[in-house]
Sequence to fold (132 residues):
Amino acid sequence: MPAKVSAVKRGEAAAPALAKAPKPVAVPRLAHGNDDAGFDRLIYERVRLGIMSALAMNEQLAFNELKSLFDVSDGNLSAHARKLEEAGYVVCTKSFEARRPKSVYRITQVGKKALLRYLEHIEAVIKATRCS
Fold:
């Protein structure tokens, strides 16, 4: 007697004989309702997260103080700070001191809220990871 052959239509895959893989665990949603509200890609970058965190802990910091904290070049720090400034997360006040330019940065209320949302999101991810 010939062996029974099952036909598979074009575009369809044969059912795998292996056991089903467990479903991946999703990142928990925040109470804000907007899934992207917690994970701010602008803050995610190391230097920008550092700038935001340092300014959240200090009333203001000068450019050179930020530069020494993160061991980055002038151009690198300037580019990151400008992105945060364009987003409204920080403000920069420029002046001259002893004929030398001085830039002082402060975090805004919008920046504080964005940082808090980001930190809440990261905490939720950590909590979900530890519980699984």
Remarks:
- The longest helix spans residues 109-131.
- The beta strands are 61-62, 90-97, 100-107.
